[in-house]
Amino acid sequence: QVQLVESGGGLVQAGGSLRLSCAASGRTFSNYVMAWFRQAPGKEREFVSVISRSAGTTLYADSVKGRFTISRNNAGNTLYLQMNSLKPEDTAVYYCAAGWTFVVRTSDYEYWGQGTQVTVSS
Q1: Residue 18: CA atoms inside 13 Å, Cβ hemisphere, count?
Q2: In this structure, are strands 68-73 and 111-112 parallel, antiparallel, or unpaired?
């Protein structure tokens, strides 16, 4: 089992930036594919980005491509999401997740953090 804790969320003005972090513990971090998802009120949890075990491959949702960057530090057991040019529609609870395959479906991830709130004002 791996435990995941997100941090770095907050309130930011449109056009601003935030960096989210996800600290992992309990199992070897580098064994897992890691991903970010988000969920806005009244909506299903949606895919944001995923990164492979060695960080050699990344994938982004069309809605964030060019604005967000996913990265990981396996030595520090930490996943990151750098968010630039934020828009009000980015407002959501952001979750990190760990799984065994490079996929974009929420159902394919075994472990989840509790989430961190990101609010973007206009």
Answers
A1: 21
A2: unpaired
